[in-house]
């Protein structure tokens, strides 16, 4: 049984803008740094270990995990569990609750300096998956107390594709570098559903809903069934993902960036990433629509005002099969701007970084301050603090070890945050983990002298 509240909890807990680890922005030795700005380049060329060269995972949103999971009597419950009082579960929610998660896995990656030791090129092949959930406060209020409400804009978006990219950077003046990255995308799968209207109310022994919404799936085929009245609908009771249709679409993207050394020890950087689109083909897309009155088993309210879980399966929505159309979606563009001042022959640097990410329904802003230590050319460490306003702040740590035979990077903002006994970060909305392992190749560049 695919209960809608089970889907909500799974997406809220693990749910995905491709957010990189902010600590990596000023890590000169890291091969991942050029993902922020194609004008950046590592100290020397590299060959990534397949599937281990660049692994990034992040969770972002406006809800901290301690408002989703609650430890009680040595066990862990979700906010929708009957063991968690409604007053406690609802106290940490926003008017519109948003959570997302990103996963990026580099399959192939290599790059090198040209003979002048200044121009740098790189090629990467990565698998990227991102999901985003939007759930209004009224939805959880209904699940916990049975209060009637409108759940407009309840929705889920998920996209996954393979990205093949080529980047090149070069100096056009002694202190000005420019770079560009072109990206060719092959769609793996896409899922999206959104309710333009979902009004729920309680009756004497059941609850009612007026639902208007759409469902779009690309990359795998949904099973269908015919109702007694002859209507053809999608069977969401037992969804199987083995009937895939890859490629499900194609896309194109571009990153452009520049760095400028205003002073010998002061560098400014700016980039615009993911200018482009992803087109999902009509042949691989299934589209459904629901516009009907629904009835479901009622919610029982106890003396304390807590509600039992409603009996509500996704399959009962009965998304009617309609003619599919090709879908073209813009990539989620981001803007990155930074400045770093170095002292003690570049052994210590102080950086300030601004990041803007344009999601479908919200634009995220983050400001990161960092202190970067380079005691040796082969050892770099960074500490950062990121401010994201109402979405929570975080400390980040990064370490890059880059002697002549290996390039290893690890970074996270989870080490210093407060955690529950179940190791759940509390009071933190955004979490990032980055890992990279590669082999240095070719001569060193002259950019970091």
Question: What is the rounded distance between the termini?
Answer: 61 Å
Choose one word for the global shape.
Answer: globular
Computed CA radius of gyration, to the nearest angstrom: 24 Å
Low-confidence stretches are 13-18
> Number of DSSP strands?
24
Mean pLDDT equals 83
Instruction: List SSEs in N-to-C order.
Output: HEEEEHEEHEEEEEEEEEEEEEEEEEE
Estimated share of beta-strand residues: over 45%
Query: In DSSP terms, counting alpha (H) and pi (I) runs of 4 or more, how many helices?
Result: 3
Largest sheet: 20 strands, antiparallel
Helix content: under 10%
| Derived structural class | mainly beta
Describe, in plain words, how this protein is organized in 3D.
This protein has helices at residues 4-14, 86-91, 137-145; strands spanning 44-48, 55-61, 69-72, 75-78, 96-113, 120-136, 149-150, 154-173, 176-202, 206-218, 224-226, 232-234, 249-263, 266-280, 285-297, 320-322, 327-330, 334-343, 348-358, 363-376, 379-387, 394-401, 407-412, 431-444. Mean pLDDT is 83; it is low at 13-18. The strands form three sheets. It has a 20-stranded antiparallel β-sheet that branches. The protein is mostly beta strands and 449 residues long. Strand 21 (379-387) and strand 22 form a beta hairpin.
Please write out the topology.
Layout: H1 4-14, E1 44-48, E2 55-61, E3 69-72, E4 75-78, H2 86-91, E5 96-113, E6 120-136, H3 137-145, E7 149-150, E8 154-173, E9 176-202, E10 206-218, E11 224-226, E12 232-234, E13 249-263, E14 266-280, E15 285-297, E16 320-322, E17 327-330, E18 334-343, E19 348-358, E20 363-376, E21 379-387, E22 394-401, E23 407-412, E24 431-444
Antiparallel strand pairs: 1-5, 1-24, 2-5, 2-24, 3-4, 5-6, 6-8, 7-9, 8-9, 9-10, 9-13, 10-15, 11-12, 13-14, 14-17, 14-18, 15-16, 18-19, 19-20, 20-21, 21-22, 22-23, 23-24
């Amino acid at each position: 049984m695919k209960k809608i509240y089970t889907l909500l909890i799974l997406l809220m807990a693990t749910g995905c803008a491709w957010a990189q680890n902010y600590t990596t922005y000023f890590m000169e030795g890291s091969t991942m740094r050029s993902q922020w700005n194609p004008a950046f380049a590592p100290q020397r060329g590299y060959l990534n270990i397949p599937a281990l060269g660049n692994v990034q995972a992040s969770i972002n949103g406006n809800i901290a995990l301690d408002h989703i999971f609650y430890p009680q009597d040595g066990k862990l419950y979700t906010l929708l569990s009957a063991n968690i009082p409604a007053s406690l579960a609802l106290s940490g929610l926003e008017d519109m609750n948003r959570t997302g998660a990103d996963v990026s896995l580099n399959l192939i990656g290599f790059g090198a300096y040209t003979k002048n030791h200044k121009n740098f090129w790189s090629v990467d092949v990565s698998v990227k998956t991102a999901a985003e959930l939007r759930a209004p406060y009224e939805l959880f209020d209904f699940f916990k107390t049975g209060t009637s409400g409108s759940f407009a804009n309840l929705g889920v978006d998920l996209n996954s594709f393979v990205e093949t990219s080529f980047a090149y950077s070069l100096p056009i003046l002694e202190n000005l570098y420019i770079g560009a990255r072109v990206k060719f995308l092959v769609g793996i799968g896409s899922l999206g559903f959104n309710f333009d209207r979902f009004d729920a109310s309680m009756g004497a022994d059941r609850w009612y809903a007026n639902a208007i919404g759409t469902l779009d799936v690309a990359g795998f085929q949904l099973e269908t069934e015919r109702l007694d009245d002859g209507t053809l609908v999608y069977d969401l009771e037992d969804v199987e993902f083995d009937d895939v249709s890859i490629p499900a679409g194609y896309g194109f993207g571009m990153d452009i960036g520049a760095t400028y050394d205003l002073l010998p020890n002061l560098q400014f950087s700016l980039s615009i990433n993911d200018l482009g689109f992803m087109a999902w083909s009509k042949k691989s897309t299934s589209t459904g629509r629901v516009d009907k009155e629904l009835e479901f088993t009622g919610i029982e309210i106890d003396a304390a005002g807590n509600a039992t879980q409603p009996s509500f399966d996704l399959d009962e929505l009965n998304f009617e099969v309609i003619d599919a159309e090709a879908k073209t979606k813009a990539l989620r563009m981001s803007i990155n701007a930074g400045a770093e001042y170095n002292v003690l022959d570049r052994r210590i640097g102080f950086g300030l970084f601004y990041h803007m990410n344009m999601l479908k329904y919200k634009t995220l802003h983050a400001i990161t301050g960092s202190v970067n230590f380079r005691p040796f050319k082969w050892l770099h460490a960074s500490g950062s603090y990121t401010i994201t306003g109402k979405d929570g702040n975080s400390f980040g740590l990064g370490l890059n070890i880059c002697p002549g035979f290996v390039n290893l990077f690890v970074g996270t903002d989870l080490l210093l945050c407060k955690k529950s006994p179940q190791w759940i970060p509390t009071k933190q909305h955004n979490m990032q983990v980055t890992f990279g392992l590669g082999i240095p190749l070719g001569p060193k560049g002259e950019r970091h002298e």
